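User: Protein folding is very new to me. Would you mind checking the protein record under this note? It all follows right here:
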Amino acid sequence: MGGVIIITHAYGERTGIRYISTGLKVYYVPGLVIYNQATLPTVFGNFPIFRQILIREQIHLVHGHGSLSPFCHEAIFHARAMGLKTCLTDHSLFGFADTGSILTNKLLKFTLSDIDHVICVSHTSKENTVLRAALNPLNVSAIPNAIVGSRLQPDPAAADPSCITIVVLSRLVYRKGLDLLVATIPRICRRYPHVKFIIGGDGPRRIDLEQMRESHVLQDRVQLLGEVKASDVRKVLVRGNIFLNTSLTEAFCIGIVEAACCGLLVVTTRVGGVPEVLPEHMINFAVPEEDDLVQAVSRAIETAHTRDQRPELDPMALHETVKRMYSWMDVAVRTERVYLSIMDLESPPLIERLRR
């Protein structure tokens, strides 16, 4: 395949054409951001810019990401109008009954009515997208997210040996189950005096965590880090023994993959595509309900005390397993197969290079 360029909206002063360290070319298109890094829908307002970029760069295929991105929908719409091949990766799950989901699904059905292929991050996500957009399942592939395993090495010495540390890394919003988290933490702290929590992330529900910490006098046992940079995720994860995810809906959940790759035991709600992600011995499931979540965390704490006697739970064993499962090279090969099928090409250059 040919080269790859990225088109996205401007971020603050980051606008115009930039090159990242690997030489990848990025177009930061000026646009009004209205909510959650989504730009104001313009329908035809961005067409002159898209057209100029697509012609200048001699683009053959446009791959959009995110069913809630107006920029993505416009790019696919205009690319099809110019006779180019198109593909979409959908990263989220949506319902069918609430007003927001109904409107989003109508928009998705319109945009994908003439698309060449769709990629979803799990089989559950694929089923959801096929139903929402009335797609032919044969035109939808399930390709998971990936991690750079070499950057997520376990470090058992980084954890506090005097206690069990539970790590939470999440956007602090309702969808991530903040109500469950707020209800669970005090109960676990009462049951296990040697357990502490490290919570990274920011969002509108942070105030609930702060109020919970104040009302239960848990300032010395619940640490709120605020926003955590991507480059610092490993530093936070390796301080813990257990990773806790309380999401109410997830198409994939990259957080539990990163945590397992760092050697942590995982506790998560059984929602969406999460059951597809990790082998059963790495994970403790709970229904998204307070009592069951407390029991799942309790089982993980007991397991953490005895994991030295279980070779399959050795941090390096977990790391090696997850690193192989979610390799970017594997995702690249599978994605290129989709591109080749869209372009009606038979020779798979990347696949052949890997075999050599």
